[in-house]
Specification:
Elements: H1 3-19, H2 29-54
Pfam families: DUF6458 (PF20059)
InterPro entries: DUF6458 (IPR045597)
Length: 80
């Protein structure tokens, strides 16, 4: 789950939990909202942990194996 999906679930859950006053037979929208907010928060934490591990910087102290010398050749005489 990405960051966008997690934020969407958080927002949708907050809307259902705090802004909607409708009742559906056998379904409590406040509980559904809290569940969606918990899922969004869990997804946001998991995404942050996964992306944090991917972006670790690895420093190497070894020198490059080979250096190449690049020379510029001009076959055309420069303008006078």
């Amino acid at each position: 789950m990405g960051i966008g999906t997690s934020v969407f679930l958080l927002a949708l859950g907050a809307i259902l939990a705090f802004a909607v006053n409708a009742s559906i037979g056998g379904l409590d929208l406040d509980v559904v909202g809290w569940i969606l907010m918990a899922a969004g928060l869990l997804g946001l934490i998991m995404t942050t942990l996964v992306w944090g591990r991917r972006r670790q910087v690895v420093a190497t102290t070894e020198e490059p194996v080979e250096y190449r010398r690049v020379e510029e050749r001009r076959d055309v005489a420069p303008p006078l």
